[in-house]
Amino acid sequence: MSELPKSENQEKLIDFSELNILETLDEGAYGQISKAVWRNDIVALKKLKSSREEKHIINEHP
Questions:
Q1: InterPro entries, from UniProt (predicted)?
Q2: Separation in Å, CA 51 to CA 47, 48, 56, 57, 58
């Protein structure tokens, strides 16, 4: 597994089609965390819920 130096360890936007999602690790009010493979590396994938879904959540929980 390759590691990025701290200065390069940042969020990156990548093409979703490059990911092979292995399993869902957790889900919360704002999105889902999954384990995935990207370019032969294991990565964490954070999939955010849409703003429309967020408004629904906010309306449910004052």
A1: Kinase-like_dom_sf
A2: 12, 9, 9, 10, 10
